[in-house]
Every structure is written in C-alpha cells, then in structure tokens.
C-alpha cells in the first residue's frame, strides 16, 4: 500500500502513533492562537481540555507564557520559524522543553496557523547544570591551588640562600603538589586514599627503600584539600629523610600510620604519625627552622583545622597530625 492510498485520518493516526514514547509533543494553533490540537502530551502536563481552552497560559505559567506567546505571534506575523526554550512546572519541579515554532501556510502562501513541536530536554538541562557546577568547582579549586603555589613560592624564597637552591626546592614542592592533584583529579575531585597518597609522595625518593618504610593502620579517604596539604607535609618529611635522615641511613627505619581515634567530645579524629629512626649524625631535620618546619607546624595544621606536633632530634624524627572528621571519610 502506498502512502497516497491512505486517507487523511489514517495518515494522521500513523503519524501520531509514530511519535509516541519519543518525548515529542505536537500542538496546532490558528492565527488567534486558539489551540486545536495537542498530541502525545506527557503525563505531567495539564489535561488536554485545559490546554485547548487556555493554551500557553495554563501550560507555561506566568514565568514563560508571555515570552512563548510573543515568540508565536512573531512567527505568525513574519512567517519565519523560530525556536525557544521554556519550562513547565509539575508540583514545583521544572521540566524543560525546546519549542520549535513553524508557520502553517495555505496554498496561496498565507500563514493560517502555527505548529509547535515540544521536545523534552530535561537531560540536556541536567548536563548543563552539572557542567556549570563542575566549572564553578574547578574555578574554586584552581584559585585554592594558585594560593597554595603562591605561598610555597614566597616561603621557599624566604628560606633559600641561592637561586639554584630556590629552584630545586620549589620544583620539588610543585611536583609534590602535582602528584597529589593527579590523585584528586583521577577520583573526579572526590579526594584520595591515605595509602595511595603516601605511596605517591615517597615513590620518587624511596623507590628502592621499601624495606625501610612501613605503612600501617587504616586507609581513610582524604578530601581534596586534605590530600593536597597532607601531600606537602609528606613531601617535606620524605625529602629530608632522603637527604640526612632515615632514608639516607641504610639501616634507617620509617613507620607511617593512620588510626581513627575518638576524642573527648566523641568525634572520630584521624591520627596520622610519622616515626623515623636513623644513625645519629649530629643533625636534626631542620636546623634553624625553614619552610619545611613551617609546612609541618603551621601551614598544614591551619589549612586542615588540625593539631600537629613535630619533633626533630639527632637520630630521631617524629610528626603527628590529628585531623577532624570534616577533612576525611572513614570509607
């Protein structure tokens, strides 16, 4: 059977059947914007009888009705099709539609009505909203990252005695930050596991010294800000251990642990410890202070609302930081 053999009602029936379950609604209005047809309307739309009586006013409500009506009148006046986006409220929930407005011409080319196809774009709007949220989050985190880099640059400059010394120290700290950032980014900005963060920071400086390093205890999930700052603290500890501490001594020993402890107020605090032992060589980790001790004792604890204790003596180094539950997850 050819399409030309079908009656008009049959063709209309087949057309309407074809658009079912497609998320496309078809409407037809005359030049007075009186609605004569509503086909394939979703369940959350007003009843068809109400739409036929009041059309745009009952369908789009005060937020979009005037704008949609203006666009339709322009199509009727100019004979030029257009597109517009509008939402329909359903018990406080917005459902978004792309409206394609097409003029209906008679045989003489006179506009006699208006076709509207409404296409459900809720998924598109949702993705747009997710993208906007991600971009805002990216902007926020980028600013935080830049602030950390500025602080690293300024503090490293204060504690450096030469340009070359500054470049070496600054480059190492930026690389440390980059490794932590890679972990955070790979997790879709959710953060990083404690163990993977530790292994990432010690990997370059202790690749052949795994027998000297023990990682024990629980493996909490660190939120992004926690991962970045704790990574800096670990970097300072491992760099100095490699230069004149537990990793510089073949018989040196380093134990890194994480435990969940309950505070007096009932909060589950994350207790992280670095305990390092090596042959006495007359040097503590940081003679006279410097950026390393500033990172451990001031910058990282302040950034994480944590409490920290650092001890450096010939043959022994210890660091403890107690992090509140707002900065990590036990999962």
Describe this structure in words.
The protein contains eight helices and 13 strands. The chain is of the alpha+beta class and 331 residues long. The chain has two domains: 3-120, Beta-Lactamase, CATH 3.30.450; 153-329, Heat Shock Protein 90 (2-Layer Sandwich). It has a five-stranded antiparallel β-sheet, sandwiched between helices. Strands 7-9-10-12-11 form a five-stranded mixed β-sheet, with helices on one face. It has a three-stranded antiparallel β-sheet with strand order 6-8-13. Helix 7 runs antiparallel to helix 8 (291-304).
List keywords for this structure.
331 residues; alpha+beta; Beta-Lactamase; Heat Shock Protein 90; 2 domains; five-stranded antiparallel β-sheet; 8 helices
Basic shape = elongated
Question: Largest sheet, described in full?
Answer: 5 strands, antiparallel
Beta-strand proportion:
25-35%
Biggest sheet, spatial arrangement of strands: 2-1-5-4-3
From the 3D structure, determine the CATH topology of the largest domain: Heat Shock Protein 90
CATH C-level name of the largest domain: Alpha Beta
Mean pLDDT: 86
The CATH homologous superfamily of the largest domain: Histidine kinase-like ATPase, C-terminal domain
Order of helices and strands: HEEHHEEEHHEHEEHEEHEEE
Spatial separation of the terminal alpha carbons: 65 Å
The percent of residues in helical segments reads 40-55%
